């Protein structure tokens, strides 16, 4: 009799233990679902590509007690890279983000069904978590898919062996991947629409409105991180003669090709805008004035050698004058907007000097200012 009672007590105790575990897991799942819902709402309400990526990487790591979150996105046309450069986001500000041009760099981590992979951390995973300093024991690799196409990988890492195991359910992770993929696509579309409104329709480079907004962002970033910044002001020489003698269609052709030549000599982080008429302006972040002068000389030389092909086999050659100014680290005090305006003003004054002293040349604002000061003293 006592044996039967003991058996029933033990069974009851075991059932109670199982029930407690089920209740605990139910509460944990409920809490997890609540956190997922909060993160989803945050992602859906965010339209800035830069903010979205930072939320995915930083907020998810904190909200779900993860030791590492990295994001790899496929960017064959370097479109994402250009968009992020335009926001002033430096690589060291978000090391957990990696952009790859070759889709194979992401595809190799998944099967043909593009299913999430949960497993123990292995040495080969180091390349996926290169931006993290955490010591990992288990990982979840989640494919990001839009319209049946792989666009990247969201990688989660934990210092606990049991956190990500092959036997675990992936429902939450697949839902997360779907939300992240949709939000990235949406943010990209929003960015593209913004660019349309900020682009000069003739030359396909940025317009003056975008330049003035971007100027404040770049100057602010330069001041914050103690980066040198340079500006170039460019003007096509005797452009009025082109319009008057050959017509506006030829003038439009010249402006389009001039913009393309300028852009060919710039890095992804640089930006060129049409300032008005035949004038262009270029910002070169993290670039000393002397380096900007060499870029300006390459642009001037390329344009001087360039032949514009016109109707009936005719050709045309034009030259360009360029003024260059740099914002040195030692002169970065004061309001950001004033620093930006002063930088552009000095480049413009150097351009006027170049045009008034023969054209088809590059003039440095520092040299011009020093000469002016000597002449007036």
List keywords for this structure.
Beta-Lactamase; elongated; about 375 residues; alpha+beta; 5-stranded mixed beta sheet; 2 domains
Describe this structure in words.
This protein is an alpha+beta fold and 377 residues long. It folds into two domains: 46-196, 2-Layer Sandwich (Beta-Lactamase), CATH 3.30.450.40; 201-376, Reverse transcriptase/Diguanylate cyclase domain (Alpha-Beta Plaits), CATH 3.30.70. The protein has helices at 2-44, 49-63, 79-86, 104-107, 171-197, 208-225, 239-246, 248-264, 289-305, 336-356, 365-376, and strands at 68-74, 97-100, 117-120, 138-146, 149-158, 229-236, 271-276, 279-285, 308-309, 315-316, 320-327, 362-364. A five-stranded mixed sheet has the order 2-1-5-4-3. A five-stranded mixed sheet has the order 7-8-6-11-12, with helices on both faces. Strands 9-10 form a two-stranded antiparallel ribbon. A hairpin with a 2-residue loop joins strand 7 (271-276) and strand 8 (279-285). Helix 2 (49-63) runs antiparallel to helix 5, helix 7 (239-246) packs antiparallel against helix 8 (248-264) and helix 10 crosses helix 11 (365-376). Residues 368-377 have low confidence and may be disordered.
How does the SSE layout of this entry go?
Elements: H1 2-44, H2 49-63, E1 68-74, H3 79-86, E2 97-100, H4 104-107, E3 117-120, E4 138-146, E5 149-158, H5 171-197, H6 208-225, E6 229-236, H7 239-246, H8 248-264, E7 271-276, E8 279-285, H9 289-305, E9 308-309, E10 315-316, E11 320-327, H10 336-356, E12 362-364, H11 365-376
Helix pairs in contact: 1-2, 1-5, 2-5, 6-10, 7-8, 10-11
């Amino acid at each position: 009799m006592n044996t039967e009672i003991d058996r029933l007590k033990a069974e009851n105790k075991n059932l109670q233990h199982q029930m407690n575990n089920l209740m605990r897991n139910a509460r944990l799942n409920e809490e997890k679902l609540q956190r997922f819902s909060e993160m989803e709402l945050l992602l859906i309400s965010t339209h800035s590509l830069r903010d979205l990526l930072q939320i995915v990487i930083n907020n998810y790591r904190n909200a779900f007690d993860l030791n590492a979150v990295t994001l790899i996105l496929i960017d064959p046309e370097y479109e994402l890279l250009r968009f992020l450069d335009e926001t002033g986001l430096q690589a060291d500000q978000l090391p957990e983000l990696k952009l790859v041009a070759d889709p194979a760099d992401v595809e190799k981590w998944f099967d043909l069904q593009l299913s999430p992979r949960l497993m123990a951390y292995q040495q080969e995973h180091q390349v996926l978590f290169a931006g993290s300093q955490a010591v990992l024991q288990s990982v979840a690799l989640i494919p990001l898919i839009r319209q049946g196409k792989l666009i990247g990988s969201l990688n989660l890492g934990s210092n606990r062996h049991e956190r990500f195991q092959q036997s675990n359910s992936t429902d939450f992770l697949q839902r997360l991947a779907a939300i992240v993929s949709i939000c990235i696509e949406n943010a990209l579309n929003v960015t593209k629409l913004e660019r349309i409104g900020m682009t000069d329709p003739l030359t396909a480079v940025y317009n003056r409105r975008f330049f003035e907004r971007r100027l404040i962002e770049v100057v602010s970033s330069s001041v914050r991180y103690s980066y040198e910044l340079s500006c170039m002001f460019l003007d096509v020489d005797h452009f009025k003669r082109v319009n008057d003698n050959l017509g506006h269609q030829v003038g439009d052709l010249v402006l389009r090709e001039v913009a393309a030549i300028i852009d060919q000599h710039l890095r992804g982080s640089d930006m060129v805008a049409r300032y008005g008429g035949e004038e262009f302006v270029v910002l070169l972040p993290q670039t000393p004035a002397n380096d900007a002068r060499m870029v300006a000389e390459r642009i001037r030389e390329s344009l001087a050698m360039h032949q514009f092909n016109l109707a009936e086999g005719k050709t045309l050659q034009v030259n360009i004058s360029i003024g260059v100014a740099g914002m040195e680290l030692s002169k970065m005090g004061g309001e950001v907007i004033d620093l930006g305006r002063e930088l552009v003003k000095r480049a413009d004054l150097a351009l006027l000097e170049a045009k008034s002293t023969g054209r088809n040349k590059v003039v440095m604002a520092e040299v011009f200012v020093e000469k002016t000061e000597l002449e007036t003293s």
